[in-house]
User: Which sequence fits this backbone?
């Protein structure tokens, strides 16, 4: 069993397809992943599952990601988790609100797989990932990242990410 497979990641997005596709990608990278589709459900799962990383959407109908992040930070048993916003909200005021709510990083949707892989590598250490280069993933996984793509923001690259900009 690789060290990555023991890394627990909770993916939270009210869009089930988005959460499930991201969870599928993370499993391909060797992570132990659970996906859920709402804030209240995320809090319950986090208490039991105790993830090391939470990938959290901000705009959810039952409880927004800011509130979920605050509540996760209030749980002593979850001290030390890394909370990453993955959201369509990316302006400076949203990032500032995210920092105040306890987010460690903020990624804008659609997330480039190589960018996420590099960030997770930094969080879990470079040795935890099987490779630092983005591999060609099954078409079904790559297709999950097509929604919302713009010409200036490629969905997928078979090249290694050059680096991570300031993410929060």
Assistant:
């Amino acid at each position: 069993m690789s060290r990555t497979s023991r890394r627990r990641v909770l993916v939270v997005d009210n869009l089930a397809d988005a959460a499930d596709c991201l969870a599928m990608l993370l499993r391909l990278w060797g992570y132990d992943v659970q996906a859920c589709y709402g804030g209240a459900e995320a809090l319950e799962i986090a208490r039991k599952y105790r993830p090391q990383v939470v990938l959290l959407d901000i705009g959810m109908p039952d409880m927004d990601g800011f509130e979920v992040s605050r509540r996760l930070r209030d749980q002593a048993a979850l001290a030390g988790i890394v909370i990453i916003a993955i959201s369509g909200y990316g302006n400076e005021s949203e990032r500032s609100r995210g920092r105040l709510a306890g987010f460690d990083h903020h990624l804008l949707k659609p997330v480039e797989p190589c960018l996420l892989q590099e960030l997770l590598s930094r969080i879990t250490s470079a040795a935890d990932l099987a490779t630092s280069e983005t591999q060609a993933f099954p078409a079904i996984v790559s297709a999950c990242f097509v929604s919302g793509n713009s010409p200036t923001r490629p969905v997928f690259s078979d090249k290694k990410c050059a680096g991570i900009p300031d993410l929060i």
Q: What stands out?
A: The CA atoms of residues 4 and 129 lie 6 Å apart. The radius of gyration is 15 Å.
